Amino acid sequence: MDLAMSTAFQPMTVGEIIDAMIKTPNPFYWKAFDGSTAGSPEAKYTVNINSPEGLSYIVTNPGDVGLARAFVTEGLTVEGEHLAHPYGIFDSLRDLYAQFQKPDFSTMAKILRSLGSMGAIQVQPVPEVERSSWIERKLRSGLSRHTKERDAEVISDHYDVGNDFYELFLGEAMTYTCAYYPEEDASLDEAQENKYRLVFDKLNLKPGDTHLDVGCGWGGMVRYAARQGVKSLGVTLSREQADWAQAKIEEEGLGDLAEVRFLDYRDVTETGFDGISAIGLLEHIGVDNYKDFFNFMHDKLHEGGVMLNHCITYPDNHKTAKGTFIDRYIFPDGELTGSGTITKSMQDIGFEVVHTESLRFDYMRTLRDWCENLKGNWDRAVQLVGLPTAKLWGMYMAGSEWGFEHNVVNLYQFVGIKLDDEGGRAGLPERRWWNDSVF
């Protein structure tokens, strides 16, 4: 007789399974499709487990990936927060991850038999939003991490979800990187313009100079530099970004000074730039490739030229873990490290790093504003990209907002100078030459 069907076996309820996997106090109240519950009804948030499939994702991969799979497939829903800005749940999620426990062997066997009795103990299909990006790419033969071909696929997978979708939450600035708020109550567009002003000033650019922006997105930095009389070239691996940016350049009458190309930065042939900006690119490079990246940028500058690197970091100098929610669903092949590692990498190839600073709370505010914009345009977002993708963006942006507030991640800018053969700065000032102009 099949043991799973034995009359002596009493399947566990979903609530009992949750209780076996999460130590008390459980930070959520759980309600399940079989009518059972777990945790306290007094918990701030209620989690609904809507299907055996959703339960299976949680049991077989406890943590952020399993919860995300259940979330995007509607196997799990949370009461009490808007899907576009579920910021409040992340305090409870932090507590939940600390409370996960591995059941003993006999309990785990009973859990699996109980899943079997529900028809859930099988290989669950990978959610469509994941299968089309991560799994397919992983199975593609011959593409090592950070080859030109694979980098192009990864960037396209994230950024080519549709310009119309990004316009819903990025605002008029159409800028997908940390803003710099001149005042706490400044608008998102004001803060993005102030960020471009800060980068431009740190690069010490003047009318007639030349500028390269690698990983330029929709060309906001390029157009800002051109409006100041600087000849600016931007490159991006997203075709949709490049087409949008070039059309905007023509619309604003900046074609004589500004250009955005659909191009890998490694294929830029021009050299002798006065300034180079990399705003939100290093996260895609890979720590093992920093030496080659910064060498390339160093070679593209003339003596006395300045590079500004603006990127997300960890608060210390360890590498990112793989297989997490962000790596699997949002930025495949992304990798972070600490600001010390980045400073060392720039110094090791010859940059004099004259300034570093954290903009952590500015990114917290930026993400807050993006989430609120997405919330205000939620129905249109779901119409454009579908509910699973819209939910993912809301979850990852709200989670990132929480992460910046709590120093799980940080955002740094680094200013490096290419010195001449005698160690001189070719006329650059000895001390800081830019104005912060921030509260």
The CATH superfamily of the largest domain turns out to be Vaccinia Virus protein VP39
Number of E-state strands: 11
Sheet of most strands: 7 strands, mixed
Can you identify the CATH class of the largest domain?
A: Alpha Beta
Look at the helices and sheets and give the structural class.
alpha/beta
Mean of the pLDDT scores?
89
Q: Which strand order does the major sheet show?
A: 7-6-5-8-9-11-10
Overall structural domain count: 2
Return residue spans where pLDDT drops below 50 for at least 5 consecutive residues: 131-143, 154-160
Shape: elongated
Structure, explained:
It is an enzyme of class 2 (transferase). Keywords: Lipid metabolism, Methyltransferase, S-adenosyl-L-methionine, Transferase. GO terms for molecular function: cyclopropane-fatty-acyl-phospholipid synthase activity. This protein is α/β, with parallel strands linked by helices. The model is unreliable at 131-143 and 154-160 (pLDDT under 50). It has two domains: 3-125, 2-Layer Sandwich (Nonspecific Lipid-transfer Protein, Chain A); 158-418, Rossmann fold, CATH 3.40.50. Strand 1 and strand 2 (37-38) form a beta hairpin. Helix 15 (360-376) runs antiparallel to helix 17. The protein has helices spanning 14-21, 52-60, 64-72, 89-99, 105-117, 128-139, 148-159, 163-170, 188-202, 220-227, 239-251, 290-300, 325-330, 339-348, 360-376, 378-385, 387-405; strands at residues 28-32, 37-38, 45-49, 76-79, 210-214, 231-236, 258-262, 273-279, 301-313, 351-358, 410-418. The longest helix is centred in the C-terminal third of the chain and has 19 residues, at 387-405. The chain is built from 17 helices and eleven strands. A seven-stranded mixed β-sheet has the order 7-6-5-8-9-11-10, with helices on both faces.
